[in-house]
Amino acid sequence: MKQNKEITILVVDDSPSIAGYVENILEENSYNVVLASTGEDALKLSSETEFDIILLDIVMPGIGGFKTCKKLKENTKTKHIPVIFLSSLNKAEDKVKAFSSGGTDYIPKPVNPKELLIRINTHLSYSLMQNELHEMNCELEKRVKQRTSELLESNNKLSIAKEKAEEANKLKSSFLQNISHEIRTPLNGIMGFSQLLKLKDLSNEIRDNYIDTISQSSEKLLYIITNIIDISKIETKQIEIHKEETNLKDIIDEVYFSFESLATNKELDFKVKSVGNKTNIISDREKIVLILTHLIDNAIKFTAKGQINFGFEIKTNEIEFFVEDTGIGIDKDKLDIIFTTFSQEENSMARSYEGLGLGLSISKKYIELLEGRIGVSSEKRKGSRFWFTIPYIRSANEEPENNKLDILDFTDYRNKTILVVEDDLVNFYYLKALLNDMNAIFIHAKNGLDAIEYCKNKNIDLILMDIQMPEMNGIDATREIRKGNQKIPIIAISAYVDQKNVGMFMNAGGNAFVEKPINRDFLFRKITELL
Description:
Layout: E1 8-12, H1 16-28, E2 32-36, H2 39-48, E3 53-56, H3 65-74, E4 83-87, H4 92-100, E5 105-108, H5 113-152, H6 158-196, H7 204-235, E6 244-247, H8 248-265, E7 269-272, E8 280-283, H9 285-301, E9 307-314, E10 318-325, H10 359-369, E11 374-379, E12 383-391, E13 417-421, H11 425-434, E14 441-445, H12 448-457, E15 462-465, H13 474-484, E16 490-494, H14 499-507, E17 512-515, H15 520-530
Parallel strand pairs: 1-2, 1-3, 3-4, 4-5, 7-9, 13-14, 13-15, 15-16, 16-17
Antiparallel strand pairs: 6-8, 9-10, 10-12, 11-12
Helix pairs in contact: 2-3, 5-6, 6-7, 7-10, 8-9, 9-10, 12-13
């Protein structure tokens, strides 16, 4: 996403005091601001300048806000710009008219600074996602055309090439039709229930239900986006395998607990069928967990009742993992295509099950990178059994100590001071709220330079370090802090989780790396291990 200083916002309001007030809020957060006092000025400026967001008043001299918004949306150059109405009109019909004219959001005056900044950030994130999807669409179209062209050049295989190209186009079209729905559905849940949380007189039970819905929708959206990113990395050969010592039982436990509640909610019998040993192997733990996650997610999705079993069996030279279900099963003539990218057994517009059809394709690619095999046996309306193998490379450390911690019973840290290095104020407050039960003292540093000064002048017990920041990034800041302090634990908290960044941070002196969005229990575990 662009840095704030690269984002330009047009504020349209005929009141100089209100326009100045909004301008101050935005400029304090490093946004570029352009002011306009009439709808005519707004239309002229937007035809000359590329704005990221427009904040638009309704009641103005000349053409009002509704008509201005409608004209913006009719212009191919400006129709993509999110328009947020800022107005003292607060009747339901005014809001309906605002959205009918093409408005993206509606904020009543007087404007709350925190609400304004959060909503701007939300719509900027959504615009970024739309742009990425557009680029992905263009890239997919380019690849399909290239593949079709290459196949058609082979005259002796013209018939086969044509069939493959048509099938690829069908899969691509189905995928592109589905991707908008799959992303908009959880996004609608997040934005819709966030709005409902602002209603007064909500009972605690209803409020908790809204929060649970937002959390579930966020996880679903993250899962979809992660799959899209993973398949893109696979296609561009950016995926690397990182083998290390890992424990089979710990892998199974992690996957089981991540799906236990989902299976329980569907009243499915969810069981592990493995020998309860603590065998250590050398492999890529993350990839194994992701493969099992895709397979079990599919099993739960396509199983309405009955049971799901999963586990592993150690053989002579390989380990065979399996996932069994009593779901809808797969037609025998479809078994050969279910591992194809963008493919699902059911690809019609009226599909009974959601999903992008990427999970099995991603799993197959990962398994091939791990030098393993994947297969499936299935019978329609009776269930399926997916299995995959990886090489059995045994670790010398057969029975390691169980380092798992009871995260729900961690120590009280009221005498500890934690420095949170984070340029985004919303993320800082989120981290502080997330760790509130620790009773620790929290200090906020906006960038790496501030973090270095705090470490020189204050007694810091632990640092939570963002990686991408202005002035000085988290990796350079960690390296500088280590010059004067070798003992203070430093945990990176970042969305930049590729192995290059992880390696650079650890080489700079970091102790652990936590991925955004943050898994609360995992973060607690890392903090407890280091404090």
